[in-house]
Every structure is written in C-alpha cells, then in structure tokens.
Amino acid sequence: MRRAALTGATGFLGLHLLPALLQADFQVRILARGEPPAGPWDGLPFETVRGGLEDPDALAELVRDADLVVHAAGLIKARKPAAFFAVNRDGTAALAAATRRVAPKARFLFVSSLAAREPQLSDYAASKRQAEAAAQAAFADAPDQLAILRPPAIYGPWDKETLTLFRATQGRFAPVAGHGRTAVVHVRDAAGAIAALAQNWRAGQFALADARAEGYAMHELLLAIARATGGRPYLLALPDWLVLAAGHAAGLWKRLTGTVHIFGPGKAREMLFPDWTVSPAELLPAEIFAPRFGLVEGVADTVAWYRQAGWL
What we know:
The protein is globular. It has helices at about 10-25, 55-65, 80-100, 125-140, 165-170, 185-200, 220-230, 240-255, 265-270, 295-310; strands at about 1-5, 25-30, 45-50, 70, 105-110, 145-150, 155, 175, 180, 185, 205, 215, 235-240, 275. It has a domain at about 1-160 and about 185-210 and about 280-290: Rossmann fold. α1 packs across α6, α3 packs parallel to α4 and α8 runs antiparallel to α9 (about 265-270). By secondary structure, it is of the alpha/beta class. The N and C termini lie far apart (about 40 Å). β1 (about 1-5), α1 and β2 form a beta-alpha-beta unit. The chain has a seven-stranded parallel sheet, sandwiched between helices.
C-alpha cells in the first residue's frame, strides 16, 4: 500500500479527508498536537505523529517513507495578521522543505484556497498565495511532484463557520452581503477530489467547485438553505459600507479583547468581492473527479447532519 502523510487531519476538511484517503488504499500518518478526535474516526487505522508545522523533527517523522504528502493544515482566523503568515506560508515552506529532504520522491498535494487568487483582499488570502509560492519554490526542480488545489467555500458536516448562515435562515431576517457570485463545494466532494487526485496524479494548479462552477449569488445560497431548514426569512440586503464598517469594528474588538473569530476587515472585503466563480479551465479535470453533491443535495445533507448533532 502507498503511504500518505496528512496535515490538517483534525480540521473540518481533514475529518473527511482521512477516511477518503484510507478508502483510496493509502496507509495514512497524520500530524496532530493532541489526541485524535473520538467518534468520527472510530475503528479507522492510522498513525499519529505528535507536533506542529513549526517542529522540524515532527515534520521529518511525518513524511518519512511517504509516497504522498497532503498538506491540508491552515489557519483561517487569527488574533494577529502575522499568525496567518507564520502558519500558512512558513508552515507550508517548512513541510515542503522536509519533504524534499526526507522523502525526495514523494508527491506534494497542497490544499490552498480560491482566496489565493486575490491576495490583496486579506491577510489570509495573501498568506495562502505566498504559501503556494513557497511550495512551488521547494519543488522548482521537480514540478511534476507538486499539485495545488484551490477549493472555494467548503460547507458540510462538522463545519462551524458556515453554521452561522444556516442558523440565520431560521430567523425573521437574513442579511445578504455583497452582489457577486461565489462557487461552493460540499466537504465530501472536496475530500473525494483530493483522494482522487492522489490516486490519479496530475501535477499543476486546479480549482474545485460543485457542478455549477459559475457559482451562486448570496441570495440564492440563503434561499436554498432556507428551503432545507424550513425557514422563511426576509432577505435584508446590506450596503457595502455597512459590511466594511462591521468588519473594521470586529477587527477592533478582536484587538481589544484578544478573541479569535473569522470576521474582520479582510473577510468583509472577501465577502464583497464580486467574482469567486471558477472557470472550466481552472477545474480539476472531470476524468479525475466529478462532484456528487449539487447545492440542493449538499445543503439537505448538511442540515440533516447539523440536526442530528444538535447544532441546528
């Protein structure tokens, strides 16, 4: 069996990615700071290396004898901007360097973000773009061993970030921010695409999306969620200036209190950006993977899971 090293296994995507890699006949070794979560992985066979991306010894042990390294770890919210670059950029550079040193023939699959396409919008987006550059620099002499995936907004079971949108549709009013379109992908399809690319390797840079790569307007997403939750909210369009003001206020609150949450000035700019769609030329080729979940099916699956888990 082929050996895969996985970072980010205990995150939202990683909870689905570990089983997907096992189903693709990989032996999997994960990097984790603490005990792997009970419940989602009960009975699954995998190894654990204790440590983080800043630990060179843990990284060397993680990638030892690996045929594939899947780097899905990343920071999506932070107290200070520097943390995005320390984890997303520097952590990627450290893992890529360890792979080239310890397992020089291993393929490296970096799960980036569609946000990397617009690095000027936020520290998160800039850190992801610089992380891509770090991986490309490490594999400059072996470009056929590097693949970069840029998923759009990922939703599905275990996701706590988009849960806010689902809950909003059960209230009287649901705010609508921005006037653009955004592609989305269900988490099981995102994990399936990564596992499929691991099995049917193709180097390069690719994006992910559901079957509607041209994306959805925010009011379409909210209405689809409302139909699944049974809510009937009034959609309240927010002016751009109010979204930006709220983002700056959230950023100030974060600095004053030391709290960590995803919304801030950068996230507000990302929300207002008009084009998070994906062109056919960007997509992972259909012969490698085709999405199974449309928006209706994906939202229904997510609502059912949220309710079973008591989150909704």
